[in-house]
Amino acid sequence: QQQVKQSPxxxxxxxxxxxxxxxxxxxxxxxxxxxxxxxPGKGPALLxxxxxxxxxxxxxxxxxxxxxxxxxxxxxIMDSQPGDSATYFxxxxxxxxxxxxxxxSGTQLTVLP
Amino acid sequence: DADVTQTPRNRITKxxxxxxxxxxxxxxxxxxxxxxxxxxxxxxLIYYSFDVKDxxxxxxxxxxxxxxxxQAKFSLSLESAIPNQTALYFCATSESIAxxxxxxxxxxxxxxxxx
Lengths: 113, 115
Description:
The complex is a heterodimer of chains A (113) and B (115).
Chain A: E1 4-7, E2 10-14, E3 19-25, E4 33-38, E5 45-50, E6 56-59, E7 62-67, E8 72-77, E9 86-92, E10 102-103, E11 107-112
Parallel strand pairs in A: 2-11
Antiparallel strand pairs in A: 1-3, 3-8, 4-5, 4-9, 6-7, 7-8, 9-10, 9-11
Chain B: E1 4-7, E2 10-13, E3 19-25, E4 31-38, E5 42-51, E6 54-57, E7 64-70, E8 73-78, E9 87-97, E10 101-106, E11 110-114
Parallel strand pairs in B: 2-11
Antiparallel strand pairs in B: 1-3, 3-8, 4-5, 4-9, 5-6, 7-8, 9-10, 9-11
């Protein structure tokens, strides 16, 4: 049972373009939505996260947009760079419970120079 | 990644063999996890542990077992390896920050091939 659906599976963007990765969740009890970035040969690392009390969070070129009513959230990478080429995972969890992070299936992003 | 180490980094084994993947952390976190990563399936939780005496099954625990030898050490065993256990395995630790959420810190991964 996949509780967090992520799309697209792969994405190719030109340098300077905007990369957009989407996730949808089913469990309305989720209240924490992080994005993890994974470079080849490395483990995933936290990139940015949002809680549902805000609709947008921005850190540098990375922005999370959150739509609680639609149960969707997305990662936007502005001015995409070749160094952003990585696999991105969205995730969701319930704060303060024994429930663990539920990850999306991942998006492999390639930014062409 | 240096705070969470995994050994070995790569392993080739044969069907039916027992193998152990080891994880150590210096972050001082109580929570530790084992995931496997397969293309198109993301990260799936195998086992997790909130402290030395608390071990829990994840969504895909069949065919795996774990041991939490100390706060800093969490090992994953494949009792009798089979080819569909070929995957990339990650250990992770976490801390829960009040009002923010849980951040997980991943090791560099172990690439396992079962022939």
